[in-house]
Specification:
Helix content: 40-55%
Number of helices: 10
CATH architecture of the largest domain: 3-Layer(aba) Sandwich
CATH class of the largest domain: Alpha Beta
Shape: globular
Number of domains: 2
Strand content: 5-15%
Order of helices and strands: EHHHHHHEHEHEHEEH
Strand order of the largest sheet: 3-2-1-4-5-6
């Protein structure tokens, strides 16, 4: 069987670190400072703590401060000119088209942002669909609920899936469920035991061997 590819979006298929992430991080810090009556410095530290502990600032804000997920995401993902901030290698489109199997985005970002990035990059013409945080019942990676939502919606087994991510800890639940895992990282960090392949770029992805794609 051909595999089902699950791609993270930011820093996996485009470079969000250059312009987009700094903008979102500043917006989150400003939101937290105002909402929680914190200094910018304390809000920044708390945001980092929540991201480290939960994998997403959203999870910490909802769990500890009863923030409405939609309100938080809408306030922190506003862009006046997202197109000018996008750093994307168009050659990746041709490479992804050559990979066998179905391809989906699996992102912690809100729907409006995911759709905008897909449209601006041209990835909407390559992907078979996408999952934003709203589709995960606001349970972002690495919460296992989100992975289970994706599998149920696609009606596939985890063993049929290949998950491609830039955040290594988000690959751990995928591996535990039975997916094959690919870590996209430009550095030379040691490869965790739950990572099957470590690549510098998504352009280095290859079709799995026939025996692997059909393994149960």
């Amino acid at each position: 069987m051909k595999p089902v590819w699950l791609f993270d979006l930011d820093n996996t298929l485009h470079d969000a670190g250059r312009h987009i992430f700094p903008h979102i991080n500043n917006a989150m810090t400003a939101y937290m400072a105002e909402r929680l009556s914190l200094s910018i410095e304390d809000a920044h530290a708390l945001r980092g703590h929540y991201w480290t502990r939960y994998g997403a600032t959203l999870h910490g804000m909802v769990r500890h401060h009863k923030v409405r997920p939609g309100d938080f995401l809408e306030a922190t993902h506003r862009f006046t000119d997202l197109a000018s901030m996008l750093v994307f290698d168009k050659a990746l489109l041709r490479h992804l088209r050559k990979l066998p199997g179905r391809k989906y985005i699996f992102s912690n970002a809100p729907r409006s942002y995911v759709d905008a990035i897909l449209r601006l990059s041209g990835l909407d013409r390559v992907m078979d669909g996408s999952f934003a945080v709203e589709d995960l019942r606001y349970q972002p990676k690495p919460a296992v609920v989100g992975y289970q939502c994706v599998l149920r919606h696609l009606r596939v087994r985890a063993s049929d899936c290949i998950m491609v991510e830039d955040t290594a800890k988000n690959l751990l639940p995928a591996k535990r469920l039975g997916m094959r895992t690919v870590w996209i990282t430009p550095g030379s960090q040691p490869r965790p035991v739950w990572v099957d392949a470590q690549l510098r770029s998504a352009r280095a992805l290859k079709a799995p061997p026939a025996s692997a794609s059909g393994r149960r």
